[in-house]
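Dear colleagues,

As part of the handover before I leave the project, I'm documenting each prediction I ran so the next person doesn't have to rerun anything. This entry is a single chain, and its sequence is reproduced below.
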Amino acid sequence: MTAVLHRGGFAAFLFDMDGTILDSIAVANRIWTRWAERHGLDAAEILRVMHGVQAVQTVRRFAPAGINVEEEAAAITEAEVAETAGVVAIPGAAPFLQGLPPERWAVVTSAPRRLALRRLWAAGLPVPAVLVCAEDVTNGKPAPDCFLAAARALGVPISDCLIWEDAPAGIAAAEAAGATVIVVGATHPRRLETPHPVVQDYVSFHVEADSTGALTLVALGQEGKRP
């Protein structure tokens, strides 16, 4: 049995990276916890809010007075680039992405490009033709700039895009951009409170393209939740 999860056909899919197509939570949590403890900060509070936003934004928000924010953020990024043990693809993500037309999808992440490429490689995921990273926009998530930039690069209206996200900041950015949103819950221990459809991974659905190339997400063996 198949069921349409999203109707209407989309011009493109825009994917967040961490927590959406790959799981780097354990690595990021270890590195940010070490940083918090080194500066006498509340690690639990930092971990609660840092996912989905640029490292420099989190450092600026929590760092004690007198700390060089850019240098601290750069050091955290270097640690994340060096430490890839435990970075894995969300189940089904690799074949799902490989099956998409190259001109119809992008990855949009708050990570710097060097870290994004490192994690995509570590997770065994394809690198898209359009990869929007931290250094490509002035305002990071929850601002919509990154998703708008990806849609422009693909040559499609943002309103015709389906954005895949997992973190509150990214969901807010997708909503502000004016796109349709689907939430990936694979890295969340409890179901997210969200008005958007939620999927756990990429195993139970596939994509169908019509004669114009527009994409429709189809769930297998379940009643898809429609927007």
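Residues 131 and 154 are 10 Å apart (CA to CA). Residues 25-38 form the longest helix (14 residues).

All the best with the project,
I.
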